[in-house]
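ok so i was messing around last nite and threw this chain in just to see what happens. nothing serious, just curious
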Amino acid sequence: MVVKNKESFAIKLSIYGSIIMAITGILAAFFGNSISLLFDALYTLIAMTISIVGLRISKLLKIKYSVRFNFGYYSFEPLFVLINGLLLMGLAVSLFISSIQSIFNGGRIIELAVVTEYLIFSVIVCSILTFTLKYFAKKTKSEILHTESINWMLDALISVVVLIVFLMSLWLKHTKYSYFIPYLDPGITIILIIFFVYQPIKLIKSGVFDLLLAAPPKTFTEEIKEKLLGNKPKYGFEEIKINAAKIGRTTCIEVICFYDKNFEIKSIDTIDKLNNQIKTEVESYSPNLDVRVSFNNINT
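result:
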């Protein structure tokens, strides 16, 4: 099995695993009367959607432009990131409010047998997928698979922690703290939401800034500028200006070269040669760059 096939197989395995865990989680949440399981299942479902659509968008990004989208599909990625961030935030807020209401209404009695069986199943499946994806990540040197393996490992650890907390209710039944049992499920849900809420906030922030064509860190453009200025005699410009906008994984860069009015342009080929040389040098700085070069009179 070649590297690309191995990576594709492993990604599909992760997606199928997410589908299984999302469906079983929703069913377990319904029959077990558990908000925490519902949050975990819906979070998995949205994350799976992100993976599937993300793969499709990555293919679109390889297509530079189309008749409908003349400037390419760069904005698709931050738009999708923003939508998913809002969905995750909406899920977190709605279940957070539901959990708070549940606590004020006396808590929630869960079907411990159903919840326990699901969590044991979750630990087993997540652990198997963690080690499987780690194996394929090592074989293919894939960052995507490495990230996926970490996500499944976190899911497994969370399931272990939640399982331990729910099993504590068996001990609490025989103590004076038995009144605390109905508050375990909404309490765990609140903790999980607080633990995960940074992710949708990060996605929303990233999506908004990219859609507004915010510039990357100033150090990024300054380093490119210094690199070009180091070859100033080669290109013959007097000054340069760099404008940049980060759109998803792609950074669009405009390099404006200012020449003295006495600069001699022998032919169009001269401009083409300068254009290609400058563009090639900037593109060598970092992957996923879309570079445009223009030439102006220094006095304009």
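not much to say yet. The CA atoms of residues 260 and 299 lie 8 Å apart.
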